[in-house]
């Protein structure tokens, strides 16, 4: 059997890895449009801050390593069209500007997404950068040490934008963080957390200009010099656009069924509208455990799960993609946070009635001094007010307690209730934690005094 895999990031890599694990005799052709295989944009901050020294190491695999396992790896070769009836793809060899046709028995599309460009004047100026991919990583690295860059404006206050802002603040630049949403990281955290993080950003030379719409980038001598919003004008020697992503599927119009956002329509077995064609990654939706519906959740964890499930299905198994909770985590200077599922701020988006309880505690018993690592921990639990089913949570502290959110993710998937979490068994040792885990405390508090819960 011949399998063609398009795209070398998370979903494509995991598909290839899954096939090799179960059926290494399979003929695999693996295509990457760029000249670098399996770069991980999620590792870009570590490279830009110097934690990782070599940009070429921020990857899953090398062509040489995969070829040694029998995979036919093609870089700088783009799949430009698919003929589902003939089971063929057209390949454009970018290095030699030639085309050819390749036949497949199974085709897996991990085409991902591209940075969304704001439709504003000046968006195409040369000092307007993106933060995605190896080429941009190298360009951004140079700007962190460029003495002519003093004012940086980051457009987009999500994960990627926050990472970019922190990188350049640590490099000694003045950073303005612009977004339409009222709070930085507001998609992932409720205001009890973002209020703290916003103060932290300001203390580190990042100015959150949130609740503002970008109108234009003004220029002098062919370079952007200012970002103009509906509320202010901000000086900019460098602009970094991180305002969302767009599915890389324009070339699939009329070939596969796409939704109104350009996402590839798939079933729970990752099958598209065409026989023997599967799709995984950021250009698809995944089953969402809290609502039992489907959502676009562009996370590496989801893409890799899809890749492994696609590999199993194309090899003859019949396995559905398991529901996910959208779990993610990030550090903002000294704070570490994680969230999963539905939050008070996203309940309306999902059309779900929720209640929430917020707990501020310490990570260890009061007799443990702060010099020994004891610190405040903030935890918010969201649940269904009628059934008490757990729907989501957020946690944050200056000590890394983010792994707790994995427990909540599992609780969501298992449809556990407050009653299950209130007395769930977690270890206690004063050098690590409290006798009652903060998750226990939140569930108990919700059950004993729901009138104090925050309703949404």
**How helix-rich are the residues, as a percent range?**
10-25%
Q: Count every beta strand, where a strand is a DSSP E run of 2 or more residues.
A: 26
Structural class: alpha/beta
Mean pLDDT across every amino acid position: 95
CATH-level-4 superfamily name of the largest domain: FAD/NAD(P)-binding domain
Separation of the first and last Cα atoms = 52 Å
User: Which sequence of strands runs across the widest sheet?
Assistant: 21-22-25-24-23-26
Write down the overall geometry: globular
Q: Features of this protein?
A:
6-stranded antiparallel sheet; 456 residues; alpha/beta; disordered C terminus; FAD/NAD(P)-binding domain; FAD/NAD-linked_Rdtase_dimer_sf; Enolase-like, domain 1; 5-stranded parallel sheet
List the helices and strands and how they pair.
Elements lengths: L1 E5 L3 H13 L4 E6 L11 H5 L14 H5 L4 E4 L1 E7 L4 E6 L4 E6 L2 E4 L3 E3 L12 E3 L3 H11 L6 E5 L3 H12 L3 E6 L11 H13 L2 E5 L3 E7 L2 E7 L3 E3 L2 E4 L3 E3 L29 E3 L6 E3 L4 E3 L4 H15 L13 E5 L2 E7 L5 H4 L4 E8 L13 E8 L6 E8 L6 H10 L4 H5 L15 H11 L5 E2 L1
Parallel strand pairs: 1-2, 1-7, 2-3, 7-18, 9-16, 10-11, 10-16, 11-12
Antiparallel strand pairs: 4-5, 5-6, 8-17, 13-14, 14-15, 19-20, 21-22, 22-25, 23-24, 23-26, 24-25
Pfam family, one: Pyr_redox_2
Cofactor: FAD
GO molecular function: oxidoreductase activity
